[in-house]
């Protein structure tokens, strides 16, 4: 997610030969608009080309609607269910679902984990959920983690978004052991930067070519949630007691230690400005709205309510243009951040995030259980699906930056994740 990203980023980096963001984990520039002659599915959220993030943005949008008690349009749910392959896996987007998935279908862990979280929350999709869980377990790496693509090297964003999905489905991630006998938490903690190194306590996306771990805020937001066994939707945890020293004890470090270490790093990263900055070359001084939203969720889940509240307040004042530009996954990320901090998403800096998200979906459906009036026909003119393809390619080229889990978005810099 973000991760942590979004998953879409990971898909792009896989295509260009780079290691895989979802999850998904968010790009700061709009994604290319679909060709005027390309007809998009009626049940799909967003108007941008869904090739790289269709399932990701749909999953986040439906999960966000469910979280706030809004009733998703049936055709939107049906579209997501119809994207699943017989194996249980999901690809970022299948334009023709009448064609069966085969070895060339680009299924991935981030799309599958995001869809799993959404379908489990919506209920009534037990068979689809069970198949997705079984597929994710079948592609677990020997070290206990997951990469974006089956068999790919484990990364923090993918491992975290899968942990969250398995937990949401009622599994006990610590008991989901690989063929090598390793748990997902062991793989995740192996990606935590040692306390005595620069960025100690943070999570890296993956080791570099020399095996060194570099702190990455996007991966850290995902890693904190993964260490806590949390998915995209969570609430504030027990208030953290001060800034405890970074816990470093090799194999003795627990998932709770990892979450505490990572959240302390995030708290430090947002302390000055209230937001995270972009990791993209040439944009280091620019705010990263998507990763900031993911950080709010992670900080709140780890009990750092003060820092989470400060960053949320910044988002309330500064995220409107970003969300309108990036569409459904961006609105979902903000809703998750509001939910995690107990903030009303229908009055988010004066904006109704629920209505804005609904306007990007089929017929602008905004009904809730208490409001079954006819769907609004309002549509966002500048909304996009959420992830810039060019941004994703850039991530693959610079390498080592990491990706958003709540895949990021997805809309995030991921798959993504």
TrEMBL record:
Signal peptide: 1-26
Keyword rRNA-binding among UniProt keywords: no
Keyword Metal-binding: yes
Keyword entries, A-Z: Membrane, Metal-binding, Signal, Transmembrane, Transmembrane helix
Pfam families in alphabetical order: SQHop_cyclase_C
Transmembrane segments: 389-407
Entry-linked InterPro entries: SQ_cyclase_C, Terpenoid_cyclase/PrenylTrfase
Ranges for region Disordered: 359-385
Occurrences of domain Squalene cyclase C-terminal (ranges): 112-158
Top-rank taxon: Bacteria
Full protein name: Squalene cyclase C-terminal domain-containing protein
Organism of derivation: Streptomyces ureilyticus
């Amino acid at each position: 997610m973000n991760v942590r990203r979004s998953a879409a980023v990971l898909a792009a980096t896989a295509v260009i030969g780079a290691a895989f963001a979802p999850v998904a984990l968010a790009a700061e520039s709009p994604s290319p608009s679909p060709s005027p002659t390309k007809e998009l599915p009626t049940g799909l959220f967003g108007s941008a080309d869904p090739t790289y993030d269709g399932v990701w943005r749909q999953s986040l949008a439906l999960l966000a609607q469910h979280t706030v008690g809004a009733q998703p349009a049936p055709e939107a749910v049906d579209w997501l269910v119809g994207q699943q392959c017989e194996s249980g896996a999901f690809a970022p987007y299948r334009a023709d679902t009448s064609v069966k998935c085969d070895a060339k279908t680009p299924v991935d862990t981030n799309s599958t984990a995001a869809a799993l979280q959404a379908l489990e929350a919506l209920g009534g999709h037990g068979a689809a959920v069970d198949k997705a869980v079984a597929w994710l377990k079948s592609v677990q790496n020997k070290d206990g983690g997951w990469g974006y693509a089956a068999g790919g090297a484990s990364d923090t964003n993918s491992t975290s978004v899968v942990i969250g999905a398995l937990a949401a489905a009622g599994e006990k991630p610590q008991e989901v052991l690989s063929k090598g006998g390793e748990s997902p938490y062991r793989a995740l903690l192996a990606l935590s930067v040692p306390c005595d190194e620069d960025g100690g306590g943070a999570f890296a996306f993956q080791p570099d070519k020399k095996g060194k771990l570099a702190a990455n805020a996007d991966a850290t937001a995902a890693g904190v949630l993964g260490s806590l066994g949390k998915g995209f939707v969570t609430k504030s945890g027990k208030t953290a007691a001060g800034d405890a020293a970074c816990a470093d004890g090799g194999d003795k470090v627990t998932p709770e230690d990892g979450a505490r270490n990572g959240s302390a790093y995030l708290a430090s990263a947002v302390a000055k400005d209230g937001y995270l900055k972009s990791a993209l070359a040439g944009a280091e001084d620019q705010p990263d709205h998507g990763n900031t939203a993911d950080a709010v969720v992670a900080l709140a889940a780890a009990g750092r309510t003060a820092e989470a509240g400060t960053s949320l307040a910044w988002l309330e004042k500064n995220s409107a243009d970003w969300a309108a530009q990036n569409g459904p996954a961006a609105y979902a990320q903000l809703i998750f951040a509001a939910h995690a901090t107990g903030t009303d998403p229908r009055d988010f800096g004066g904006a109704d995030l629920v209505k804005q998200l609904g306007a990007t979906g089929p017929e602008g459906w905004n009904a809730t259980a208490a409001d079954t009036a006819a769907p609004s026909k309002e549509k966002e003119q500048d909304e996009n699906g959420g992830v810039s393809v060019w941004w994703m390619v850039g991530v693959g080229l610079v390498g080592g930056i990491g990706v958003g889990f709540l895949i990021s978005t997805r809309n995030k810099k991921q798959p993504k994740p």
